[in-house]
Every structure is written in C-alpha cells, then in structure tokens.
Amino acid sequence: MKINRRTLLSLLGVAPTALISSAAGSEQLKNKKKIAEAAGPTKIETLNPRGIPPAITLVPLAPRLASIEGKTIYLVSDGFPGADTFLNQISIWFKKNMPSVATVFRLKAGGFADDDPKLWAEIKDKGNAVIMAIGH
Amino acid sequence: MVTIAFKDLALTNAAKKGMPLERICFTPHPIWGKSEAEMYAYLEGNDPVRGIPLMKEVVDALTKPLTDDEKKTGVTTPSVGPPTYVDTADNLQKYYMDNGMTDFMPIILPTQEKVDAMLKGSSHHPDEVVGQLTPARGAFPAWQFTVKQVAINAVMAGAEPEYLPIILAIAASELPSLSSSTNSFATAAIINGPIRDKLNMNYGIGAMGPFNQVNASVGRAWTLLSKNLGNCGLPGETYLGTQGNVVEFNNLIIVENEKDSPWTPFHVQKGFKPDENVVSVFFGYGISQGQGGKGSAIKPVPQFDQGLLYNFTPLTSIFGAVAVLDPLVAKDLVELGYETKEKLSEWLQKNATLTVRDARTMLFTGGAALRGPQAAGLKDDDLIPRWPSTALINVVVVGGQTNPYYQVANMSYSKSVSIDKWM
Fold this sequence. Notes:
The complex is a heterodimer. Chain A is α/β, with parallel strands linked by helices. Among the domains of chain A are: about 25 residues; about 60 residues. Chain A contains four helices and five strands; from the N terminus they run H-H-E-E-E-H-E-H-E. In chain A, strands 4-3-5 form a three-stranded parallel β-sheet, with helices on both faces. Chain A is rod-shaped and about 95 Å long. Helices cover about 30% and strands about 15% of the residues of chain B. A six-stranded mixed β-sheet of chain B has the order 8-7-9-14-10-13. Chain B has a two-stranded parallel ribbon with strand order 1-2. Chain B has a two-stranded antiparallel sheet with strand order 5-6. Chain B is flat and about 75 Å long. Strand 2 of chain A pairs antiparallel with strand 3 of chain B.
C-alpha cells in the first residue's frame, strides 16, 4: 500500500514543516558549535570568597644567652595532659647532664591559650630563659 | 616544645603571631599517656622534624645568637589572593577545590552577577562588617568579613537570595562550624519564627536530612563561610580533628516544628517574641539516635523521660544536652506531666546522675562536681549530677510525626541571633 508521506508523518506525530525546520535548525546548531569550538572554551570571572585576615606585627625574638651554665630556666606547662611529667623529665635531664642549670616548673594560669602576665613578670624577674611545653 | 603531630600548626601559628622564625623544637608524638621512661627516651633521641639530638637543639635554641631575620620588626598583611579569578567553569571548580575553598563538592561559581542577585536578599551594605571568625578564640587570629563576602559563600552553597538573612545571622553569631580542636566538634542551629513557613523550610518528615533546599544550603553555607571567612578547616593547621565529624558537611540545621509542638518555641524561651525570626547556635560533639532507650516500649504512654535519661548516659559534661523530639514524643511527655520544656529539663538535670567512681574513670564527665573543696568528702558510691544546671539541658521539637522517635545531642547552647536584623 502506498502511504502518503504527509499521512505517514502525521502518524508519527511530526508535521512536515517541523521536519524541515529541525533539519535546518540542526545544521545551524552544528555551525554554531563549530564557531564556538574554534573560539575555545568560554571563560568566566568569579569572586574570591575569602575573608580579611588581620595584619601581622612582627615580634623580634628575645636575645639569646651566651651560655645556660649557671642560669635558671623556667619550665612552663600550658596545661595539656602529660606536659608537667614531660617537663619534669627535662629537669632530670639537666640535673644529669648540666647540673649547674637550675630549673623551675610552673603551670600557666587559665586555659591553654590564655595569657599569664603574672608568670611572665616572675620569669623576667627571676629567670634567664623559658622552655614551654605546648602539647600534646 | 611541641609534638610532631602539631608541627604545621605550631609553625603557622607562630608566623601569624608575628614570629615566623620562633625557635620551636619537636618531640615524637604523643606525650600524653607515655611513661616517664618513654618521655626521657624522647629527650635522649632526635627531634623527629630536624633529625638532630633534641636536647642539644634545645640548648642551641636558647644560646645561638639571633639572625637578622629573627630580629625583624614591622607590619605585614597576609594575602588571600586576587579579588577575582578568570578561567573556564571546569577549571574554576578545580581551582576553588584545590585551594581549600569548598567542601570538596561542586559549588555554584560565584560570578559578580550571582553575588549581586544574592545581595538583594539583605538591605545591608555589601561592605558592612558582619563580624569575625576564628578556628579557636585566643589560639588563632580572628578574620573579619563583610556582607558581600558572606553573600559570595552563600552563592557557592547553592542558597537563594531570600535565605541570605539566615546565613548572615549565623555568620554574625561568630561561631565557626569548624573548630580547630582534636575533638572534631560539631555545630547546630535552631531556626524559629515565621521565616520558616515563608521560605518553606522543612520541619516535618526528614527535617534534619537532605530534603529541602533552604535547610541544606543554609547548613552548607555555614561550613563554606567558616573555611573561607575564618580560615578554619585547614587540616593540620587550623583543623586538628583526629577523625572528623560527618555533621561538619552541613551542620545540624533544626527548624523547630512550632505548629505541632505542645510547648513554647525555643526562641521564645530565650526572650524573643513569637513572630521574631531567630537562629540559635549550639556547639559540641554532635547527635545520636534515641530509639532503644529504656522505657520507650512501655504502653500505653512510653516513658520517654526515662528513655532520655538512658540516652544521656554516654554524653559528656563539658557540653550540655539537647533533647530533639518528634512532636509525638513531646505530646506523650505532656501526658506524663511535663507541661513545659522547663519542667522536663529540671527533671532530667536532677535525675541525670552518675557515681563518683564512674565519673573518675571518664573523660570530660563529672566536671565541677569533682573539683574544688566540695569534692574532698566525696565517696565512690556518691551520686553527682552530670550537669550542674538546668540551663545546660535544652529541648527542641522537630519532625513529621510518622513515629514517636527522638535524638539526643551533646551540645551546649551558645547564643541566639536575630535574623530580622539582617533582612
């Protein structure tokens, strides 16, 4: 049976004009794609999401001792578990290896990151150096 | 002196405090839990970072003259990179991820157009400073951030402009979702007020799960802005959580089901009016399920108070407790006589006790009860409260009433922030 082309297309749910359009459209799309590919991938500009860090004031290190023989070293714990025991071992090490070095143990006041001006003043007054155990 | 596990943290922090060349010596890790003999062996051995005898290094650190660089003074401003990036979308996705600016999932790229649209969600000026964030107060320098910078992170998270006031309020709480602690802490936010319905936030079925764009993107934004605006979440440097916490991806966003709750909404308990929009933030270990608690199977009214007490057992005392209840559980508790959240909190605080013997074996539990002059007379079988105050036990109602279930969080209330202020 000969089927009318228009009838066949309508059975397929496609209008003839749609087919013609889609054929032309497909060609246009191919051309656009070729042009885009020739131009290279599209670049976009995006924003930096980061916040504002504070300025850093450089702090020079404290002057060093010519020698620690005969000096007093403060051994300071910031409170992390085990730091006091570890610092005591340092004290024992000095007694065995550098007996002229005196050591003084102190637990810093407050939380781990809290300042302890009273302790720093004591060290400045009575000590020559500090070894601080930070953890962990 | 610092253990090797914290090398990057120690060096970076010293630099941020203005002493990039501070003389730091490293020991093997850990110190905690080692015997005296083991600790002494550390001293007799080498610094594991530099490979030189440790105590010789210590003595040298105290005696070798300072270099010119170690004597430097002045001010420097750390760079966070250029204000914009230009590349293909795929390359930009990789760039943001490789530079620690994401949660390792694809983001919505924050173009100027998208950020401008986001900024329409708030009447506040883009350059207004919202607050500051730090991975841990006192230990790390705090970074400041503006409304625009929050908006950029909100775009990245997939939020819509209407959600921006909630995200700004969370940012303004100055509670980062990524703390530096080795504990892998988590954060939560309870949302109250008419904004919940205005934005169709989810406080029903699956409320704390991946089922709503607002809930999801607000929580995600908190993680992204903590990383980018507070310099949080850099493993080994500003994040030392030994295992991490799954809550950290999206945080615990709890939109209270005020409609089906028999009790006062959380924000009203904190002094706000019912029609105010408020976010209340929490901090602690996270959340766990409550099914299986003692008393839950009793009929006709399950003994949910006993169940909560049972599920409080593994919670520490360094954080409070939050009872996160489906409305069905809340209604059953009213039938048991708890006409208010406060009455429930009081009963739970009074009855959440443990023996001194048990408390002394547990990390972070027992708290103030085990310290101070009052602790001197305590005997092993004496009972002490897990939490010294009712204020440490909070209650929130959320869920879709498909079953009377609940969850418990070991978290402390931090503060409540007005969302309306940021509209």
